[in-house]
Design goal:
Elements lengths: L3 E4 L3 E5 L4 H8 L15 H18 L3 E6 L5 E9 L11 E7 L8 H17 L3 E7 L3 H9 L3 E2 L17 E7 H5 L2
Antiparallel strand pairs: 1-2, 2-3, 3-4, 4-5, 6-8, 7-8
Helix pairs in contact: 1-2
């Protein structure tokens, strides 16, 4: 099962390992899943993202993880935490959470369940003072989940990124402090 990081009622969240890029490419790298993330990407781009995540875990003790469904053993998504690293963002270095879930598992609460675990881990094990999440206004499901998690819209952190199409600009951000989390 790889290096277990977190476990929720229905999910195992484990560190990414060398063989996961092909699996992610096959299961998660679809037009529907990647619609607001810049579109389907090449395998070498997934491998580069996985290498970055493995590096984050080695350096900082956190990164992105594979979401494995306990009952089936299937990969159902990808989630975790990293530092904001988009050079256009006004808050480079902040703790950023994120997720994606395979299309045939949408609307089953997997992202919500996984992110509750990630947020608890970020605040109580990693010591993050606050978290941000980035999306586009067009990605309604994403920002609705941010709101369901108790995150608050931060228009002061919006930025435009020419790497994304006009409908996915600007990039919008939500944030959550440890204090806000503990009162939700």
């Amino acid at each position: 099962m790889g290096d277990l990081v977190l476990e929720t009622e229905r999910l195992i969240l484990r560190k990414i390992d060398e063989g996961d890029a092909v699996l992610q490419d096959r299961v998660l790298n679809t037009p529907a899943v990647m619609e607001h993330l810049g579109g389907v990407i090449e395998l070498h781009e997934i491998e580069a993202k996985h290498a970055k995540s493995m590096g984050w875990f080695a350096r900082e003790g956190f990164g992105f993880m594979m979401m494995i469904e306990k009952v089936s053993g299937d990969l159902v998504g990808h989630c975790g935490m990293k530092r904001v690293d988009n050079p256009l963002a006004p808050n480079i270095g902040d703790f950023e959470i994120g997720w994606l879930v395979r299309e045939d598992r949408w609307r089953r609460g997997y992202a919500h369940e996984a992110m509750r675990g990630v947020i608890d881990w970020a605040f109580h094990s990693i010591g993050a003072p606050y978290l941000v999440a980035l999306t586009s206004n067009a990605n309604i499901g994403s920002w609705k989940l941010m709101e369901k998690l108790g995150m608050r819209r931060r228009k002061d952190l919006d930025f435009s990124d020419a790497a994304f199409p006009p409908e996915d600009n600007p990039t919008i951000q939500y944030s959550l402090t440890k204090e806000q989390w503990e009162t939700t």
